[in-house]
Amino acid sequence: MKNEKVPASEISRQLEIADQVRQILPAGRKYHIVTLGCQMNVRDSESLAGLFERMGFLKAETREDADLILYNTCCVRENAENKALGNVIWLKELKKIKPHLIIAVGGCMMQEEGMAETLIKQYPFIDFIMGTHNSYKVPEFVHTVLTEERQTFEVLNIDGMVVEGLPAVRNSNFSAFVNIMYGCNNFCSYCIVPYVRGRERSRTEEDILDEIKRLQDAGVKEITLLGQNVNSYMGGGANFANLLCKIDQMGIERIRFMTSHPKDLSDELIHAYASLKHLMPHLHLPVQAGNDEILSRMNRIYSREKYLDLVSRLRKARPDIGLTTDIIVGFPGETNAQFEDTLSLAKLVRYDAAYTFIYSPRAGTKAAKLPDPVTIEEKTERIQRLIDLQQSITSEILLEQVGKTLPVLVDSVSARDESKIGGKTPRAHMVNFDGPKDLIGRTVNVLITSAGKNTLRGEIVK
Ligand code: SAH
Ligand code: SF4
Ligand code: F3S
Questions:
Q1: 3-class SS at 40?
Q2: pLDDT grade, residue 157 (50/70/90)?
Q3: What are the sequence ranges of the domains in the chain?
């Protein structure tokens, strides 16, 4: 695995350009980032915000209030792409009223072959386009737009490198995402991520632990480690379970991570669930389908039996563990009987929650070439059956929490009623209860008093 870093000199050059932008940028200019897609994009947007603020932009709460709008796009399913395109077209109108508005597009969708070229031609009001591998160059792109008043785009068709040393504006001061690796080598046959995010590369253990130490010193209580497949983390020979042990020893209150691929979930990781004090009892373990033939055509490398065995070993190691998953319905050629296998697996595992998607063909992937005789009506009916089943399981599991007293990290205040706050239990269930909003960022003990459809209600116990 290549773990090459972008040279520190290149990062300092970008920071210098950011300082030059700061000199020429009219006062009071604001930026707004629209983030679509997964946690990877959320974390990337935090670094982009860090760079915009270094350039002297202030944060705008709404798009209408901004002088620079950046779309950080996703292309994992067709509807994610349509959302991005619909949004960008709307900006054309905004630019008519505010001609100095800078419009930028970045993210995974721009890494699709030919996409950036097409967009920049089709939408001349876009000022610059960048890909996922070179977004650290945003100061340079903004500088070009401001000084040369021309469109610019650069998307690199490379495997990607590790970027260190960017400033960041974090979304929360008590819960933080920390990348441990980038890219994906798995090439699940339906998935576009390996094409747009490049090959797997890991950050060094030292860089990760440094970042976590700084976050901990700043008061962060919860760390979520990010990677498309954290189980193949390889930072200077260290494996993922090892890394978790080291973070556990630092005494971070809550450790979470995503995402895990079942094919390389190690015995060490299962053991970590039994032995680590701060690793939260929750695991997102995407299964995608419950039928062996479909799993094999998806190139997932594990069988239904192997997956169920992992689940039982995880539950043996940590009986209170909550599992969540991703499921694709209507993979090309999926028969009704094969779909029934997915339903039966969901019944057996009893997930806390399942994120369910209708298969969406992605150009360039293997599955996009497979014949797909199943109608969209049939697929819609199948996914509804799955959603209904999962809803009844989720409700049962939430009811089982009633009567327990659990530590909750308070993360939000109700928009409608300021006396109501909410947060997550160790198992990642949302709980709402009465309390002052200055408890945000603190952990309180909450007695769970009742269960709703997807959330719990409770009361603070002293
Ligand atoms: N690396 C993560 C998933 C990233 S994509 C993992 O392997 O678990 C998030 C989810 O989107 C996937 O788990 C899958 O369920 C879904 N997905 C990916 N490609 C899709 C497609 N072409 N159609 C429908 N759903 C898809
Ligand atoms: Fe996509 Fe599979 Fe990689 Fe996940 S593991 S990002 S589903 S190719
Ligand atoms: Fe989407 Fe890119 Fe994430 S395609 S799901 S934003 S890695």
A1: helix
A2: confident
A3: 8-154, 172-280, 315-400, 405-460
Distance CA 321, CA 319 (A): 6
Question: Could you tell me the distance, in angstroms and rounded to a whole number, from the CA of residue 235 to the centre of ligand 1?
Answer: 25
CATH fold group of domain 315-400: Transcription Regulator spoIIAA (3.30.750)
Task: Name all residues whose Cβ lies below 6 A of ligand 1.
Answer: 76-77, 190-191, 193, 228-229, 259, 261, 286, 288, 326, 328, 357, 359-360, 362
Using alpha carbons, list the distances in angstroms from residue 369 to 185, 278, 364, 366.
20, 45, 9, 6
Reduced DSSP (H G I as helix, E B as strand, rest coil) percent helix, strand, coil of the chain, to 5: 40, 20, 35
% of the chain beyond a pLDDT of 90: 89
Backbone angles phi, psi at 70, to 5 degrees: -115, 130
- What pLDDT score does 1 carry? 54
What is the pLDDT at residue 387?
98
| Residue length of the chain | 462
CATH number of the domain located at residue range(s) 8-154 in this protein: 3.40.50.12160
Q: Distance between CA 290 and CA 308 in Å, rounded?
A: 10
Closest of 260, 226, 195 to residue 41, by C-alpha: 226
pLDDT per position as a tens digit, 449-461: 999 999 999 999 9
Kindly give the number of the ligand 1 atom that is closest to the alpha carbon of 355.
Answer: 15
Domains 172-280 and 315-400 fall in the same CATH topology: yes
**CATH class for domain 405-460?**
mainly beta
Helix (H/G/I), strand (E/B), else coil: 349 = helix
- The residue assigned the tokens 């940028």 is 25
Regarding the domain delimited by 172-280, which CATH topology (the fold level of the hierarchy) does it fall under?
Answer: Transcription Regulator spoIIAA (3.30.750)
